[in-house]
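Hi everyone, sorry if this is the wrong subforum. Our group has a chain we'd like a structural model of before ordering constructs, and none of us has done structure prediction before. Sequence below.
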Amino acid sequence: MAKEILISSSAFQNRVAIVEDGNLVDYFIDHVEKGRMVGNIYLGRVARILPGIRAVFVDIGMKHDGFLHFADIEKLSDRDDNFKDDEGDDDIPEEILAKREKFNYLFEKPLLQIKGGVETPTLKRGEKVIVQIIKEPVKEKGVRVTSSPSLAGRFTVLVPFDNRVGISKKITDFKERKRLRRIARELLPENFGLIIRTAAKGLDADTIGTDIKYLMREWKNIEAGAMEKTPPSLLHKDLSTTISIFRDLFTPDVTKVFIDSKKIHKEIRNYIKAVHPDWIDKIEFYKSNSTIFEDFKIHEQIDSLHSRRVPLKSGGYIIIEHTEAMTVIDVNSGKYARKREQESNSLKTDLEAAREITKQLKLRDIGGLIVVDFIDLQEENNRKKIYDELKKEFRKDRAKVVILPMTDFGLMQITRERIRENILQSTHEACPYCNGTGILQKKSNTIHDLEDWIKRHKNEGKVRSLRIKVSPAIWHLLKEGGLKSLIIKWQFKYLLRIKLEIDDTLNPEEYTIFSSKGEDLTELYN
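Answer:
Right subforum, don't worry. Here is the predicted structure as tokens:
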């Protein structure tokens, strides 16, 4: 199986596609002007403490304060992979694990204390604290942060002041896990924990040690910055999306990397030369008169990620709808529906849909609550098959996923880890006319509202000369008919002098009204 990474670069975006045998399996967009936030470490100041929602808000210099949940004070960081601590933690009751002291690295004191079974933070308003972003801002929500920062390398993740060693669950061989744990214990400085990533499988102590030394140097720089700077301050900026993909996904099974930008090609080569020089020949600069995605015939697959309708090979299709609270997916049988063998046909369509849904959620990076309306199945055994199929397919997903069994109504609830904006939020913005609703008020309604305003002004206002600005569409309707136009009729009917102007910035639902002296009267009667 040929696995390739393709990078297409422009002035504003870098797009990264991972392809297996011509099929798109992963897709990322790096907005150059926006920049990646996850992984950045800040020296912040406590702004608010809200025990009622078990949260602390930390000022890190952004529009919205960072959201630090009590759970993100306690937990061992597990960035980018699923990890397991083999040293007995899985057998320790949760209430004991919750009492582990997580230290404020600036003052070496616990951030949480438990009194009478109730958690309370030891932090005070205005106090300094080091935090790391673990989730990008979404719409009006600020970033989510943790007070347990970690530094991710190519093969390991350094976790200061933790002392535990975790190993990727994807490394299943017991002897290999034991070997890697021994290496980690020999190389780790005191008061530091480590997570062994999947990419470390089979590596020698020298290679892993080089990775740890690099991360230790980074942490020492962060500590020095924390002592010298005043909050809010950026202490550490993580790699860009493009480079981080190589850090996380450039595995031995990747046969080739094609890059159409000389600048990024140089950056990638320098990074690979430092962490894995044996793979340098896999990095290739791609020069072509057309686009790299067109040449590799994945352009249509990428375009389809913006469509709400996704066809299935059986003739059915799924519809993906985004709402404020959740993502809703509807499974339809389409042309595949038959009267006979309805249960088996529905099962076949649902199974195909389950595989496509896991693929689409991963490609579109959809997170949060997801509700899927499958085609109704009568047999409980068939419902379990759909559940098992989803669980099997989601094992390929790096994000954390929780699935609940199908209900009697054919609904299945899924939660998927949300770290950044999904593909639709990342590439689209709300229409300034309809504000994302997809519908506009009829022009006749706008004209009726405008005449209502004029009628009230005739009875209550003193200004007899008005200047009204409307959208081009409304202007043409009001001017239609020349001397018999609606605007002329209004002037005679309400004994007002009205000057009508076009404003291209207004949508068909809007209008603005001014006096002859320039006073804005629009909200006078609204």
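For your construct planning: The chain has 14 helices and 29 strands. Confidence is low (pLDDT under 50) at residues 75-83, 87-105.
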